[in-house]
Design goal:
This protein is an alpha+beta fold. The chain has 8 helices and 12 strands. About 30% of the residues lie in helices and about 15% in strands. The strands form 4 sheets. A 5-stranded mixed β-sheet has the order 2-8-5-4-3, with no helix packed on it. A 3-stranded mixed β-sheet has the order 1-7-6, with no helix packed on it. Helix 6 crosses helix 8. Pfam families: RNase_H2-Ydr279, Ydr279_N. It comes from Kluyveromyces marxianus (strain DMKU3-1042 / BCC 29191 / NBRC 104275) (Yeast). It is found in: Nucleus.
């Protein structure tokens, strides 16, 4: 295969939205989960949409499959640990239209809902060291929410001063729409005033969960042995957990305790937990029954041998030696017993 383009050494290949014919400014905002182990998001805006830049590495496996990749010898590296050059085709029908790169990393863009970042701002004091901590309900439980109402311009100033200065790089009409998703709104003299509210955040997340349930990923298999109610509970739980990497720990805890006639998430979690506990008990009881059956013999049987068929083994008789009688000097000591 022949590649006409030169090897890219100091450039990065990026897959951007179609219709992008001008330069865009890439800026960063803190990760919305307030997870210390996660890097800032790289974002840019195009028209009325925010996009997130992500990295895909073709010449390097993920950490989860690291050992498996080493065994299968799937990826190859130079002596200094760098991956071999990677080739990318732009047009699969034209093998000469492509790039050869020093590494296999490319950037690609996905649509991003700025409402997640506003949630991160609201729960900015709720910081966790890693994603596992999100499942623990007792970390930094107090956030001291601001219950005042502000205009959109005032809110942007607060975001810039209290969260991140790059909020100034987001067009007001984009983040104002996101603000409406999770805020109480009052209108006075033709102007809107906003107040981000925890209940509004939860309601917005519930709508996200409902959409995931209705379009549940086929890659997430539901065990066929589950009863119908447990299958529904499992689907709801997985839908909530798909959001855990994007929302603060307290927002997740409020979400999984949500109750309504439309969707009772708390009940689904409780039903699934009870089902798992009962399943574990049943497994333990089955295991104990199997062990008991293996250790208990049949009637009149000991270690598989019928007692009735056991042969008695006679005890050996001890024969005392007789002393011969003679005329020796000691014969007088041995006299016949009188009857």
């Amino acid at each position: 295969m022949t590649i006409d383009h030169e090897t890219l050494k100091s450039y990065t290949l990026a897959v951007l939205p179609s219709g992008l014919d001008t330069s865009v400014e890439i800026f960063e905002l803190p990760h919305p989960s307030n997870n210390e182990s996660k890097k800032n998001l790289r974002l840019f805006t195009l028209d009325d949409q925010v996009y997130q830049l992500k990295t895909k590495e073709f010449s390097k496996g993920c950490d989860y499959n690291k050992q498996k990749d080493l065994v299968s010898d799937k990826y190859h590296y130079t002596s200094d640990g760098q991956p071999f050059k990677s080739t990318f085709l732009i047009d699969e029908n034209n093998r000469s239209d492509g790039f050869t790169m020093e590494n296999g990393s490319i950037l690609y863009s996905e649509k991003y809902d700025l409402t997640f970042s506003l949630c991160g701002y609201y729960y900015r004091k709720n910081v966790v060291p890693n994603e596992d901590a999100a499942f623990t309900p007792s970390i930094n439980g107090s956030i001291n929410p601001d219950k005042n109402f502000y205009t959109s311009s005032d809110y942007q100033e607060r975001l810039i001063s209290n969260h991140n200065e790059n909020w100034a790089k987001t067009p007001s009409h984009i983040w104002e729409k996101a603000l409406e998703n999770i805020s109480k709104i009052v209108e006075e003299a033709g102007e809107k005033y906003y107040c981000i509210d925890a209940d509004k955040i939860t309601e917005w997340l519930v709508r996200k969960v409902c959409r995931i349930i209705n379009n549940f990923p086929a890659s997430l298999k539901i065990p066929s042995t589950f009863p119908e109610n447990i299958s529904s509970a499992f689907k709801c739980i997985m839908s909530c957990n798909l959001l855990v990497s994007l929302i603060p720990q307290l927002a997740y805890q409020r979400l999984i305790n949500y109750e309504s006639e439309e969707l009772n998430i708390k009940q689904h979690f409780e039903e699934y937990k009870k089902y798992k506990e009962e399943s574990i008990k049943e497994d333990i009881q089955k295991e104990m029954a199997i062990k008991a059956a293996m250790s208990t013999g049949l009637p009149n049987m000991t270690n598989g041998i019928d007692k009735s068929k056991k042969k008695s083994i006679p005890k050996p008789k001890v024969v005392k030696p007789k002393v011969a009688k003679g005329k020796g000097r000691i014969d007088g000591f041995f006299k016949n017993a009188k009857i």
